[in-house]
Amino acid sequence: MADDFVKQLYDYVDGTVKYYLESADNLKGFLSFLAGFRSNISTRNKILTMGYNLAATDVRTKEAWEKLGVNVNDESAMIYNIQQNKEGGYSERVMYDVSVTDSNPVLYERFPSAGFFAERLILSSPCPVIFHEPPLVDNRRASYNPEKGIIEVTCGYKREEHVCYGLLREYSHFYLRENQMQMAGEGKTDEYDRDRHAIETLAISYGICVRYGIEPPEIEAVHPPEGKPRDLLRILEGMDRAIQKISKRIDEEGMEQRRFIGQESEVNQPKERAPAQGRG
Prior knowledge:
Layout: H1 4-20, H2 24-35, H3 43-52, E1 59-60, H4 62-67, E2 79-84, E3 90-97, H5 114-123, E4 129-132, E5 142-145, E6 150-154, H6 160-184, H7 198-211, H8 229-252
Parallel strand pairs: 4-6
Antiparallel strand pairs: 1-3, 2-3, 5-6
Helix pairs in contact: 1-3, 1-8, 2-7, 5-6, 6-7, 6-8, 7-8
């Protein structure tokens, strides 16, 4: 059974999760934190880390830093996370942010324009992107079709930022559906509900745009579902996984300079469209 201090950590996470999903401003604050965070730790521990240090970007144990040849300069700047031990119980784990070490923080890549970022998104797509002229369902600019395994995009974009937001939302639906299938387990065929995940996909779009220096979309309202803190935590975990997966794909692509969509390319490009038409 967890001791009193670990219970306090759990209680803090439970109260904070609900707080982050109570309003758009609260959620923006959490997503902005995730946007600059590099450590591959659980969402629960990221919430704890944020409670200790709003500016934290990379937290590891002292032993982990030393294995990298990095020294902790201020051992009083402790950040407590939760870890599961071999016996199945839980205990606290002392972490230190990169800012209190003799290592330099690693910064994320920034993009010079929304058009260049949109081009990277197309190159990094987790599934085929198909462009066509007819309007999509509900006048969406982009839509993930799970039955076909593709993202369909209408060519009627007015601004390059729309490409970013539209594709990011549909990538998010792709990854959230993938997460849902993994959590459901084999033999489960629960239908993916786009409307239920609408706030999550908008939030993911916001977080990724913040990470790469692109003007983010506006999050106007948040309506968290009723449920226990653990249920709400799964929503944040879904967001976090999708942000990590999409960002990893973007980071792994090369930095070859290309013009905005509509230029010469045989893959994932709209046909018979001049580049100027992609700008408003």
